[in-house]
Structures are given as C-alpha cells and as structure tokens.
Write a structure and sequence with these properties.
Elements: E1 8-10, E2 15-16, E3 25-28, E4 31-34, E5 37-39, E6 44-45, E7 50-51, E8 55-57, E9 62-63, E10 68-69, E11 74-75, E12 80-82, E13 87-88, H1 103-138, H2 147-180, E14 189-190, H3 194-205, H4 209-215, H5 220-228, E15 247-248, E16 254-256, E17 261-262, E18 267-269, E19 271-273, E20 277-280, E21 283-285, E22 290-291, E23 296-298, E24 308-309, E25 326-328, E26 333-335, H6 340-347, H7 351-397, H8 399-424, E27 433-436, H9 440-450, H10 465-472, E28 476-477, E29 482-483, E30 494-496, E31 501-502, E32 507-508, E33 511-514, E34 517-520, E35 523-525, E36 530-531, E37 536-537, E38 542-543, E39 548-549, E40 554-555, E41 560-561, E42 566-568, E43 573-575, H11 598-604
Helix pairs in contact: 2-3, 2-7, 7-8, 7-9
Length: about 625
C-alpha cells in the first residue's frame, strides 16, 4: 500500500498487478523525498514493477512486468514501455479480454467481503473463545502453582500446533482441488463473481507460507508442490529443486520440466486480469532450466529447455522461444548458459557420488525440519503460557493485562528468533565459501536459512531500532543508518557504513546457487550509501562512500561501485547525473539524464565486461540465490 496517498492519482479502468511498489516517497541520501505518482486511465502496470517519485503513466499506456520508472520518468499516453529503467517496446502485455462487470456486481462483492470478515470470521472466532474459555476456567485448571497446569499446557500446545499443521495440510490438499473443478483454463470470467471468489480462494489456500518454509530447500518440496497441483514430468530429485518462497495464481496449471532447478522468489503469473475480467492460463517451464532469484514467470513466457534465467530477469512474452541460452536483465538479453567453474563442480557430482550426497543431504535436512518444528512448537507453548497469565490477571488489571501479554510475547518472540538464528551458525560468523550443494558445509547453511528471522523484524522498519536489531543478528552496522525495510539473509558477512540509507524491499544477499554450485561472499556498503527501493545487491559487491543505487536496480556479483557515483538499471551500470536539486523545503530533485544503454553495452562487450567501473568477470551468468 502507498504511504503518501494524497500524492497518488489513479484513473478509471486501470489495472495494477500484485507486488508493485508506488509509495510516493523514498529515502535518499539521508532525506525523505516525497513526490506524486500519476497513473492515467485504462493503464496496465505489470507485476513486480516499481514507480519511483515523480513518475507518471499516460492514458491507455502499459508498463511490463518486472519494470521500473525511475524518478521523474514518464510514459506518454498510448505507449508501451518495459525494463528497468523502462524504455519503449512493441510488446503487448494485455492478455485478458474485457467482460461485462456491472456496478451492482462490484457493490455486492464488496458488501459480501465486509460481512464475511466482520460478521462471520470475527464473530465465530470470538464466539468460540467466549464459549470455551469460561468452561475451562470453571474447572480450576488455570492454577500456575500446580505442576499439572504446565503439563497440561505442554499437551495442549502440542495438540494445537501439530494438529493444526496436519489439519491445515489436508485442507490445502483437498479444498483447492474441489474449488478448481469449477474453473476452466483460458476462459474469460467477469470480476467479482463466483468464479473470481473461487480463484482467489485457490490462490490463498495454496500459497500458505508456513508449508513452503517447512518443505523448501529439501527433497520434500517437490512432493508438496505436487500435492498442490504442480505437474513435474520426469522429475529429477536434487534435494534443492525449489527454495522456500514460491508462489502462483493457480497451481493446477503449472508445469515444471525435468531437471529444472528454481531458487527462491519464483512467482508464476498464470492469472491475467483486465479492469472487468480475469482468466487463468497454463504456465510451462522447460526442462533443464535454472532460475535465479525473484523470477516472475508469465503464462506466455517464451523460454524452452536448457535456459538460465538470471536473478530479476524479465521473462520475454514475445519473439522466438529461447533455448540453450541464459537471459539476464530487464528487458532481458542473451548470455552464455553456464560458466566453466559451475559446470566442473556439477560434473564432479554424479552417479554414485550423487546418490550418496543426496542421502546425506536428506538426513541432514530431516534433522533441520525437526528442529524447525520444535522451535515453532516452543513459540506456541510460550504464547499459551503468556495468554494464561493475561487471563488470570484480567480481573485485577483489566485491559492492561492483555496489553502486557502482547508486549511480553513480542519481546520473547524477537529474542527467541534472534537466539536460534545465531545458534544455527554456532554463534560464529560466516566465511566465504564455494562448494557443491552435496557438501556438508552447504547443508549447514541450509539449516541457517530455515531459521532466518522474518516478519518480526519488519515491525522496526523506518525506526532507529532496526539497526539495533541488525547488530544483534551480526551485521557490522554503522551509526545513523536509516533502514526502511531492507533485508540481509547472511547478516554476519555484511558491513554497512555510517549514515547509509536503505529503502523498502531492498535485498543485500551474500550467496547464490547455480546448477548445484553454492557461492558465498561478503558485501560492503561504504559510508553514506543509498540503496533504492526493491534494489538487489548480489554477493561480493563493494559500494564506495556516498554512492547511490537507484530503485529496482540489480547490482551484479563482484561489482565495485566507486565513491560518489550513481548506479542504476537491471543489470546496473553507472548513470550520468546532469544535476541534482534538493531544496530545504522540498524532497524532489531534478531529472537525471540516464544512459539507458546497459543492455546494449553488454551485448557489444560480449557479456564479459560491464561499465568501466565494474570488475572483469562480473557479468558471468547469474546464479539463483536462496533467500
């Protein structure tokens, strides 16, 4: 949701797809800058796009998926743009034909939604609590002086946690399959009707974060996705076929080819929308593919077999089917499929070594899953314990007892999650690493991924407490750092200098994994750096003092950004700044004259060289890191 809503204007019949960022503000070089975002009539904004401050899209225009408008960019009326930063294109991103969607239908759906949430879900939940709690209290079980109470609490928490896990898994496996029987692929349905409700229910029930986190990065994930409805013909089990962050619109229309390996952040866009209709469509990924992080794959993706998709690459939806190549950037361009050292480490793991490695990995992952479930059970038990004290003290302290319980539970949860994340590393710092996914050192890193703290840390976004939490987690964090929602998977090998400005959804990631080769290397941000909204900083990167990384940029592995420069784009290159104006009373700056030529430069350079400021070899094919 945008923050500065008085600066946002959206015209009639416009469609904005999910995961799009248009906050109408940003943090830049230690200042909060606000600016309008204007979206015209009948506009299509693709999934996972970023609209920086001062941007506009004219009537009847389109912005493709995984695209970005940098500050003060404007798409003229009727034009189609894509890429990061966006540039004109002939590609048509509208896929769903319009349908009749009356005002009465829209009103009825909205009223039904409110009634369902307010009068059904809330009333049923509170009603059950009011029904069960008095009868429980009347039995005298709520006595904290009796040892039997704590035994009872352990048993109740066990049944509640594991029972809910099993029951939820059955519901996820059965209910969406029944609902999907009433949906037909490639048929256009009007919005806000029965079919729309069914499709939303299928999407929500099959995208439960807990089960993805539980099974991801292990051999279980392929079976869980098959349970959801994924088709995986000729499955080749690697033990790391998928990460922990997959999502989709409709799992029953997803096909993943044999031998394909996918890192975290995959979003299968197999539901298309207009302002009055939607349709679901099959999405097929070829065999022997490798997908890096944060890939948004459309139903009409033009990729075939043996492709590598670099992190944040835009999947083409027109032109010939790409096969046997790598794709990098937004808009994407072709690069070599693999690099020599990754092929060598992959070829060394085959036959009997592969089978032995997979057995060892499965055993290690099994222990990791048990520890993960144990940690979540402990959280449930502590939540029940704190709630029991709140109920017991409610007659004395009224609402203060409930408020105090929430505070105690939040503080405990934060401290407990910090403790187990540090414990998963043995309370040590990470070291650079390059090995196979069948190496025990990688398995230990997978265990660390399972316990990475998330959710709770986001509460501190934009506050002085966020850097404090990062320090507790091992980040070498400087003074006066503003963090509006950045994320560090590997905290202990990240260094952030004094006075840095980190924007929402930025990702500073010190690892990658490609075709079975795992790489880990630290990242250093100098003093006074700015990392833009949704920017991705890859492993081995060094950013000089005062440098700025623009919104939605992808700074590739091993890049060295000189001090006081501005880099942007996907992949990022140096931008020439014509002028920057920062009045004391306004948070806007003048236009940046950008060299929107990163893709063309890389093509001419043979994909092996970047702009003069980036090390040689920084453009070898991107791996797909786990988050």
């Amino acid at each position: 949701m945008p923050a500065c809503t008085d600066l946002l204007s959206i015209g009639d019949d416009t469609v904005i797809r999910k995961d799009t960022v248009f906050n109408c503000y940003r943090a830049h070089r230690g200042m909060i800058q606000t600016g309008p975002v204007t979206i015209g009539r009948n506009v299509l904004v693709g999934e996972a796009s970023v609209l920086d401050i001062g941007t506009s899209i004219g009537d009847d225009a389109q912005l493709g998926h995984v695209s970005a408008l940098h500050a003060h960019q404007a798409v003229p009326p009727g034009q189609r743009w894509h890429g990061s930063p966006a540039e004109p294109t002939d590609t048509d991103y509208r896929a769903a034909e319009p349908a009749v969607c009356s005002t009465l239908r829209r009103i009825a759906y909205s009223v039904f939604t409110v009634i369902n949430r307010v009068f059904f879900v809330s009333v049923i939940g509170l009603g059950l609590l009011a029904l069960l709690l008095p009868s429980y209290l009347s039995t005298g079980h709520l006595d904290h002086t009796e040892p039997a109470f704590f035994l009872h609490l352990i048993l109740v928490s066990f049944v509640l946690f594991f029972g809910t896990t099993v029951t939820g898994l059955v519901a996820v496996a059965v209910v969406p399959r029944v609902l999907n029987l009433f949906l037909e692929p490639d048929r256009v349905y009007p919005l806000y009707g029965v079919h729309y409700v069914l499709q939303r229910a299928v999407a929500r029930l099959t995208n439960v974060r807990f089960y993805m986190l539980l099974t991801g990065d292990s051999s279980l994930i392929v079976h869980y996705l098959r349970l959801l409805g994924y088709k995986q013909p000729g499955l080749v089990q690697t033990g790391s076929n998928f990460g922990v962050a997959q999502k989709h619109e409709n799992p029953f229309l997803v096909t993943i080819g044999s031998g394909t390996m996918i890192a975290d952040g995959l979003s299968v866009m197999n539901a298309e929308y207009s302002s009055s209709s939607f349709r679901i469509a099959p999405a097929s990924v070829g065999s022997k593919n490798y997908f890096g992080n944060n890939i948004h794959y459309p139903s009409g993706g033009r990729t075939g077999d043996n492709c590598l998709l670099g992190t944040k690459a835009m999947v083409p939806v027109d032109g010939p089917v790409r096969q046997g190549v790598g794709l990098l950037g937004s808009p994407s361009f072709e690069i070599p499929r693999s690099v020599r050292r990754d092929i060598e480490i992959r070829d060394r793991t085959s036959g009997a070594d592969l089978r032995a490695g997979l057995r060892g990995k499965n055993k290690h992952n099994a222990v990791t899953l048990l520890l993960f479930m144990l940690s979540r059970w402990i959280l449930v038990a502590v939540a029940l314990l704190v709630a029991s004290y709140a109920v017991a003290l409610h007659s004395l302290y009224d609402v203060l007892a409930v408020s105090g319980a929430f505070i105690v539970l939040f503080v405990f949860t934060l401290g407990f999650l910090i403790l187990i994340e540090r414990a998963s590393l043995g309370f040590r710092r990470l070291d650079p690493l390059f090995c196979s996914i069948y190496d025990a050192r990688f398995w230990r890193h997978e265990r660390f991924w399972k316990f990475i703290i998330e959710g709770v840390v986001e509460v501190f976004n934009g506050t002085p407490f966020k850097p404090v939490v990062w320090r507790l987690l091992g980040v070498r964090m400087g003074k006066r750092v503003f963090d509006d929602g950045c994320f560090f998977p590997e905290k202990t090998i990240v260094t952030v200098g004094d006075g840095c400005t980190l924007n929402a959804r930025a990702l500073v990631q010190c690892h990658s994994m490609e075709d079975g080769a795992f790489k880990l290397e630290g990242i250093t941000l100098g003093k006074g750096c700015t990392v833009g909204v949704n920017a991705f900083i890859h492993y081995g990167v060094t950013i000089g003092d005062g440098a700025c990384i623009e919104a939605d940029s992808f700074l590739m592995k091993g890049a060295e950004v000189p001090a006081q420069t501005t880099f942007g784009g996907n992949p990022a290159c140096e931008l020439s700044v014509a002028s920057v104006v920062l009045p004391a009373t306004a948070g806007r700056h003048a236009d940046l004259s950008r060299r929107r030529h990163s893709a063309r430069t890389l093509r001419r350079a043979g994909h092996g060289r970047h702009a003069s400021r980036v090390r040689r070899g920084a453009l070898s094919p991107l791996s797909g890191p786990r988050q």
